[in-house]
Amino acid sequence: MNHSQLQQVPHRRFNPLTREWVMVSPHRTERPWQGRVEKDAPAAAVRYDPACYLCPGNERAGGARNPKYTSTFVFDNDFAALLPDAHHADLNEADLLVARSESGLCRVVCFSPRHDLAIPMMTPAKVRQVVNIWCEQSQQLETIPWVRHIQIFENRGVLMGASNPHPHCQIWANESLPNIPHRELSAFEAYSKGKKSCLLCDYLKLELNKKERVVCQNDGFAVVVPYWAVWPFETLLLSKRHSGAMEELSSDERSLLADILQKITVRYDNLFETPFPYSMGFHQRPSDGLPHAECHFHAHYYPPLLRSATVRKFMVGYEMLGSPQRDITPESAAGRLAGLSEIHYLQRSNST
Ligand code: H2U
Ligand code: ZN
């Protein structure tokens, strides 16, 4: 059997980054479905919201007041999940009750003073400022001796638990390697040891040759729906040059990163003509001072939507108990995303 015959039959696909399997059931997409592609009510586009905790000059929920910032704005999360000075604890009872203390810092980054402009709608120069602040923050946080991992992530939309529509992301820096980066690090190390090359450099080469899962690219980055995608329109953003962290990107590459972030998010918004919800985040090498030359800088986008602005995929039932499963194939999701315009639907209707 070859790859094209897989388009009709249930099968499993292997994720070499996490070394887990996903079930793919393409034949189910033929089942009757009477839904339609419906558009969400467009969010009221206010540039400034006096009731927003993140807008310039406003008071936050914790009582602090934001400065009248004019570019990006970073502050320590008023409700931080981790604290920098955890009391040391290392408990183990019969290998069954195991716990350790964890120090960390949690920050919030407002992308711009504008309450209404998310990444796909911002100017390229403003997105570049966001990339700059991510690099600056990573560089600053990794100088803290106990910081071993820096996670930059964005929850967009209420569906993904974002607490505020003002475009922002979070940065958590902590003492230990979280589960998923830990699994990815083991996979990078094992692959590099066995094949004497980089897992994601090899994967990217394969995808750029095959082209069937490539959504968009520029000189520095490519976005693919990975062969092993779990979420219907999940994507993987890969740097073309092998580098381990965002701060290692050249000035040109930082601009290209800003560009590719817009290319993929504009496509997402255009898919159902709605502000497309997702959780996304960057995976970089651990910041423990070791080189980790086998790690390859990348980002994951996990959007929950399946068929329209309101029909989402749920990770329930078999997926909670067995393994993740998808119906629409990664190839067909990539084809749909790749075919979309790079002009945002709201900017299109404004110009007509
Ligand atoms: P999310 O939208 O991804 O939840 O991120 C917003 C974060 O902002 C959230 O973690 C913090 C919340 O704790 N926050 C503040 O620190 N101060 C506020 O006044 C509002 C929200
Ligand atoms: Zn706001």
Protein model, in words:
The protein has helices at 124-141, 179-195, 199-210, 251-271, 318-321, 330-338, 345-351; strands spanning 11-15, 20-24, 73-76, 90-93, 97-100, 104-110, 149-156, 168-174, 214-217, 221-224, 235-239, 278-283, 298-302, 325-326. Helices cover 25% and strands 20% of the residues. The protein has 352 residues and is of the alpha+beta class. The longest helix is centred in the C-terminal third of the chain and has 21 residues, at 251-271. Residues 49, 52, 54-55, 115, 166 line the site of zinc ion (ZN).
Looking at this protein, list some descriptive labels.
binds 5,6-dihydrouridine-5'-monophosphate; alpha+beta; 20% strand; 352 residues; 9-stranded antiparallel β-sheet; binds zinc ion
Q: What's the short story on this structure?
A:
Helices cover 25% and strands 20% of the residues.
How are the strands of the biggest sheet laid out side by side?
Answer: 3-6-8-7-12-13-11-10-9
Total E-strand runs = 14
Q: H/E element string?
A: EEEEEEHEEHHEEEHEEHEHH
What's the average pLDDT? 93
Structural class: alpha+beta
User: Which ligands appear in the coordinates?
Assistant: 5,6-dihydrouridine-5'-monophosphate, zinc ion
What about the largest sheet?
A: 9 strands, antiparallel
Radius of gyration based on Cα positions: 21 Å
Low-pLDDT regions = 33-38
Shape: globular
Strand % is 15-25%
Distance between the termini: 49 Å
Please give the count of helices: 7
Helix content: 25-40%
